[in-house]
């Protein structure tokens, strides 16, 4: 089978600042980690020290053949206090961007990847009507300083994740963050402690992961639009979008209406926000199957990832087709990956996922690139360091990087645009 991709198809990998940089002490997640009774398995600490080692890391990515690097800017570093911007932080991110160019990597930047400044919580966090303007002001500062170096930007990573988390948490048996299902859950005590560490009370402590009711979702849409407006005013050539986490929603007889409602909830309700965007970021990891009683558990013999969801690389191509029916924007796969200690299964996940993307392109779908999640084994939020999503392992005692075969496989594909196997 011919598996040649377009020569301009962009291939690389992705990280998130909080998960790799280390010591993001001004972020709300730092408070959550260190709160009394926190459910976080580990403290992020130095993480993989990417804030210090970014040049070596970017050089390593380039040496493997990767052609793009998606990373995020940490708002809490750039604006450590309201209206106070850090020149040293912006100089750091300027050098990260310059390093990408020096080593031949196209940079994709996320302005927000889950974590927010602790001070934002004192103003009501993502429940405050002032937050869209505050976020746009932060974006304006970044783009005045370094916007000329940013060709692609995601205002937000996974705007729909708070809604999806209801399903994820209920299926893996964790307590969901307060606010995600409204009155159904009460705030765990550790949330009160985290709020205190941010200098506020639990009723004002509204993190990004709590944006699931209609009012907060509208505020998030407003924040995206305002950010896009200031970015395009300052850098008209920068391509602006956002990303969504989208499982492949499937149904068995009797589950069609539930599946349709989930798709509306996960995807369609956000479509008004992307009117005027330049591209769409699609992120996929698995599928969800719905029956008459709701979401079905995987078959007993189904292969599960470390995250306890179904290993299903074919979901990527299937959900790409569904998205393309609703939007006419160019689509980048901005995350696709699998948590496993078996790197052969990761290679297979990449290969089969990209086969689906190739079939979509052959059918005329405008898929422009593939950015694998993630570059390194890193801090996976409340799961700590137990999940292995990386193309590159890290010995955290020494911070030594250890390249996996999956990294070499993806690098060869990035250079040849021909899928092996």
Automatic annotation (TrEMBL):
<dbReference type="InterPro" id="IPR001360">
    <property type="entry name" value="Glyco_hydro_1"/>
</dbReference>
<dbReference type="GO" id="GO:0008422">
    <property type="term" value="F:beta-glucosidase activity"/>
</dbReference>
<comment type="similarity">
    <text>Belongs to the glycosyl hydrolase 1 family.</text>
</comment>
<dbReference type="GO" id="GO:0005829">
    <property type="term" value="C:cytosol"/>
</dbReference>
<keyword id="KW-0378">Hydrolase</keyword>
<keyword id="KW-0326">Glycosidase</keyword>
<dbReference type="GO" id="GO:0016052">
    <property type="term" value="P:carbohydrate catabolic process"/>
</dbReference>
<protein>
    <submittedName>
        <fullName>Beta-glucosidase</fullName>
        <ecNumber>3.2.1.21</ecNumber>
    </submittedName>
</protein>
<dbReference type="InterPro" id="IPR017853">
    <property type="entry name" value="GH"/>
</dbReference>
<dbReference type="Pfam" id="PF00232">
    <property type="entry name" value="Glyco_hydro_1"/>
</dbReference>
